[in-house]
Amino acid sequence: MNDLTNSADIDYSCFPDDRGHFGIYGGRFVSETLIFALDELAEMYQRLKDDPGFQAEFDKDMAHYIGRPSPLYHAERWSQRVGGAQLYLKREDLNHTGAHKVNNTIGQALLAKYSGKKRIIAETGAGQHGVASATVAARLGLECEVFMGEEDVRRQSLNVYRMKLLGATVNEVQSGTRTLKDAMNEAMRDWVTNVDDTFYIIGTVAGPHPYPQLVRDFQSIIGREAREQCLAQIGRLPDVLVACVGGGSNAIGLFHPFLNDENVAMYGVEAGGEGVETGRHAAPLSDGIPGVLHGNRTYLMEDQNGQIIETHSISAGLDYPGVGPEHSWLKDLGRVNYVAVNDDEALAAFRELTLIEGIMPALESSHALAYAKKLAQSMSSDRSLVVNLSGRGDKDILTIAAMDGIKVS
Amino acid sequence: MINRITQRMQALKEANRKALVTYIVSGDPTPDVTLNAIQELVAKGADIIELGIPFSDPMAEGPVIQRGHERALAHHVSLKSTLALVKQFRETDNETPVVLMGYANPVERMGYSEFATAAFAAGVDGVLTVDLPPEEAVGLNKALRNVGLQNIFLLSPTTTVQRIRDIASLASGFVYYVSLKGVTGAGHLDLGSVKDKLGHIRQYTDLPICVGFGIKDGNSANAVAEYADGAVVGSVFVDKMGTLENESSQTIVQAIGQLAAEIRYGLDGY
Fold first, then answer.
1. What was the pLDDT predicted at A5?
2. Of these residues, A123, A302, A326, A345, which one is catalytic?
3. Which domain holds residue B86?
4. N or C terminus: which one in chain B shows less Cβ crowding within 10 Å?
5. ipTM above threshold 0.90
6. Which residue of B lies nearest to A180 if distances are taken between CA atoms?
7. Any idea where the Tryptophan synthase beta chain-like PALP domain is (chain A) (predicted)?
8. Model confidence over A101-156: pLDDT tens digits?
9. Residue A352 annotated as catalytic
10. How far apart are CA B22 and CA B10, in angstroms?
């Protein structure tokens, strides 16, 4: 299923290099003023990541605050309906706060605690990372400010209110395209200004080194659990993994612990918006070129002058013109296949899983479900496929209702 | 040919004067204003013209300069048209150094060596890429050196000794000391810290040091002149471009010139 000739002898656990590079991707493309803070963070993370005390604290929070391990659920009825491979759902939607995002915010909040900084900031698109950040801030008694594009504030009003209830300040960003990328610019600007007392919790596997590495490491709990659960439930490793990719944190979290398993194929599903061929999408790996944005080199959606262009997706969490640098590297190596699913297909998957399994997926995760269905249909019933159900769909109900012409208030 | 930046900095040193480095965004508020504006800046005492290359995601800029980039982009101003503008400027001014300041992505899109060749041909003297710290700048640095363009680097209050050394080994023309932790146009100058840090930096480089971020008027320019070899002023000009956006080109240019004259006066009076 997968051509592994040029990537079979790479040990994926050895990347990035000490300057944050995954091949030509990643790195640290920021103004000189931020270098000191990034060095400090990288140094602290290197020191703590293998520290038994730090790990124990992380594991304890994962178990007792988040409710991990999240189940690996065999969606038998859906599998039967689809007619093909057995579909398993990694239930990140059951985590406290409703998505995979919290795995990372718990980890970074612990780093913030060790650093002694009293204020945390975060950028958010769909609002899930903002909610997860506001949640850990409330629990640790830290001041929290979340940057969110004006357009996303409108689309995700429920999450905005959740953040406010949790005591966070939501800063509505009105520059550029008023979405996630602009929220990230604004958070970087805040960080460079308040770097002495502020910890920046980046929500995805993008940004300058060491963020892509540390976010991946915290999210890899998804794949480590899934690996054990597959061995216990199926008796072997899965044949295929599928996850949606915006910045790519839930995907890398599921994929990374399996990268050295040559026989496990992987699919990252980008937001095809109105169709990749229309240009109105958010799929840089499918239809972009390498460039530099937000502190790293990676595939981007840009025009012929190198300006970042507007993205389109029904799902705010995938509406981002870049992608984590490790994904760009995995694409070039051919280790992971990157594909796109349109708004309509994602919506259909949302409805199908809701009706057949009684599980309401986030619109982001619905992209992965839609592609998983197509793949499963081409596979035999003794094969198994794991989909990362990265978040729950409650936050999207107003969007869906509006499409149905129903006013919910 | 000796680079115009080096030439200008030497001449200023001999005359015991400080460099006034003025920043505006190419094409802000409209493309037809920029050429007249930079000519007027030179007429009113600017020593080095720093021209911002508009970018969709200017991460290190405060709100004032962000809006300058947005105004220019609304008129589709690009790296290419910026180079064409410099070429036009050179038709009447072959003395004043021009530094392009921008972000890595438009330059990468053009290609490092294509960019360096085109910039040199247009009459550019130096390049400052905000998001290329020395560890990521090696490729562009080499391309610039190959054609004789100077590579300006930022130093910040948090730059370590090792990094000052690394940066000094790549830098040419002058080094740009960012006076504060923050984005462009923010905060106030901490003169005590500028004094200490500049003394420290001079132990590792003989390059002239220009100070920017936080210089708003004649007084603040005057204050840094005691320690620095030059002052970089940007946000006040870009702010003026924004407030006069709907006025005639002549009115805008005149106002920009007046600001430059005031700052020049302050800088010379130190």
1. 46
2. A123
3. 4-268
4. N
5. yes
6. B57
7. 67-391
8. 999 999 999 999 999 999 999 999 889 999 999 999 999 999 999 999 998 898 88
9. no
10. 18
